[in-house]
Amino acid sequence: MASRGQVSAGVITCGYHGLGFNETGQCIANPHGAVPRVARVERLAAVERHGILWVWLGTAETAQCSLIPDLSFLARGTPLTMRAGYMHTRANYQLCVDNILDLSHADFLHPASLGGGAATRARCKVTKTETGLNLSWDMKNEVPLPVIGCEYPGYERLDLWIDVIWTPPGIMYLEAGGGPPGTAAINTFNVHIMMPEGAAATHYFYCNVRNFRVDDADFHEHVSEMLRDAFESEDKPMLEAQQLRIGDRDVDQLKPMLLGSDAGPVAARRMLVARIAEEQANQSVQ
Fold first, then answer.
1. What is the pLDDT of residue 1?
2. Do domains 2-66 and 77-280 have the same CATH topology?
3. What's the CATH class of domain 2-66?
4. Which of 50, 167, 170, 236 supports an S-S bond with 69, CB 3.0-4.6 Å?
5. DSSP string of the chain?
6. CATH number of the domain at 77-280, please?
7. Where are the domains positioned within the chain?
């Protein structure tokens, strides 16, 4: 398999039988004899942007780089302000998306780190865009999140805000910050990327960058550990437990009870259903 091989001088050499393939996917080297004409692997369009390799799974001619969301904040990250992580999650990617589009869960699942009650008390504003959804929580005069509150000793209340941009099917850019009224807020910039592995498994990538305490190694280690614990020890087990209860059934088949905080996840799921149906219809015509 080429994926278990090595790359040298632009040639990917299969680690199993030593066949070599060039950038077009054509086999150009066969240590066992003549190169078979049919020896070719599929070539997918790919581009590197924001430190991420984006792959277009359709035909290369239909690739659209304009669909890549703006994650330029990643370039501002430094060793003491950026924390990136990955967790293989045994849950459908849409459950993982739900988790970020309904941030009221943080008040109950992450009370000691990312919660506090503000997101539950605030009403989330959901706006449809040409590319996906924008969600915003505007939380005035609220109990601050611990990571924000530590920057303002003596303040029991702050103005907080959270904005999420969802790009289907599973990319979410999240900004969150806060400060005393009338002051410049401190911000954190985040991305959560859900890549489906199958119906019940997801490759979950995340990254956080902040614009305060940019030279504080101890604080950076504290924030990194806090995020790792929240995502991997709290979110991941809950998402996997949900998947176990759902099994191979569709969520809509279970007729779930909807709460006010479900506005974002419901809007996203409906948009996905419509886009998948449209894509399938276009493929059948072709």
1. 54
2. no
3. mainly beta
4. 167
5. -GGGSEEETTEEE-TTT--EE-TTSBEEE-TTSSPPTT-B----EEEEETTEEEEE-S-GGG--GGGS---GGGGG--TTTEEEEEEEESS-HHHHHHHHH-GGGHHHHSTTTT-SSHHHHSPPEEEE-SSSEEEEEEEEEEPPPHHHHTTSTT-S-EEEEEEEEEETTTEEEEEEEEESTTSPPEEEEEEEEEEEEETTEEEEEEEEEESSSTT-HHHHHHHHHHHHIIIIIIIHHHHHHHHHHHTTS-GGGG-PPP-GGGHHHHHHHHHHHHHHHHHHHHHHH-
6. 3.90.380.10
7. 2-66, 77-280
